[in-house]
Amino acid sequence: MDDGLSSVGYRGRFAPSPSGALHFGSVVAALGSFLQARTQRGEWLLRIENIDPPREVSGATDAILRELERLGLFWDGPVCYQHDRREAHLAARDELIARGLAYHCRCSRRQSGPGAYPGTCRTLHLTPDATATLRLRVSETPISIVDTLHGEVVETLTETCGDYVVWRVEDWPAYHLAVVVDDAWHGITEVVRGADLLDSSPRQRYLQRCLGLAEPLYCHLPLALDVDGAKLSKQTLACPVSGQPASAVLTAALGFLGHPLPSALTGAPPAELLAWARSAWSLTRVPLSARQPEPLNP
Ligand SMILES: [Zn+2]
User: Fold this and answer.
1) Helices 24-38 and 246-256, packing angle to 10 deg
2) Rounded Cα gap, residues 203 and 138, in angstroms
3) What residues does the ion ligand 1 have nearby, CB within 5 Å?
4) For the chain, which domains are there?
5) What is the pLDDT of residues 44-71, one digit of tens each?
6) Which of 47, 77, 237, 257 is deepest in the core (most CB within 10 A)?
7) Can you tell me the distance from the alpha carbon of 26 to that of 32, in angstroms, rounded to the nearest whole number?
8) CA of 279 relative to ligand 1 center, distance in Å
9) Whole-model pTM above 0.90?
């Protein structure tokens, strides 16, 4: 791609969806991926994953960009909007169809069931229409990825998810397809994100192989939980961090990632905190397990 970025070395990214303002869990993912890139003298890209218009919240994209800037998490190159990548997503979809790797399915959510999709439409040769999704034919061969933090993750896709949807009824790419196509286009060398997506990684690896794309490293950071033990997310209406002082937010996120701030830096501006974090950052200090963050201490 011609975006003024270098063509070699480490390249990471943060890829929020504009379904709400940044909450603590997304700050942890942003900060962890930022530090992982910066400590390797790499680039850190920002991609807004706006391929789900019904769930998009007006003004959320702007709020996310302003919040990252306020926290001193400045990205490289232009912001990528996944919505603008439709041609590439369509080309990947068409390639999967042309190579017989995907098929159309008209099962309702109820028919496809809660577990692995049973492959009901696999041999029906359905033609596409407005009610059809496109499913990828998955393999019975176990797929293995090595996560930088969690080690080896092995998944047999026929058992865990079955043939999964790569193109949705609303004529939008499904998350997995858009992610792997765009990560490859950006030349992302390591995907650093929340551990809720750890199980998705073998699915994405398999899709990368189907499409002949480069295979990035994966690193899944611990999840922040609310008091009930649920993942902090925009869906659970986790409090946005925008009302909190930037240094308090960064301090809490660094502590959550196993890098408690030295007391001499308490209340220091973001640039100073991040300079310290870059010198101290080590994945060996990052805990694996999901937990509740400490309360923010402004
Ligand atoms: Zn079906």
Assistant:
1) 80
2) 9
3) 105, 107, 120-121
4) 11-84+185-201+211-285 (3.40.50.620), 86-176 (3.40.50.620)
5) 999 999 998 888 899 999 999 999 999 9
6) 47
7) 10
8) 52
9) yes
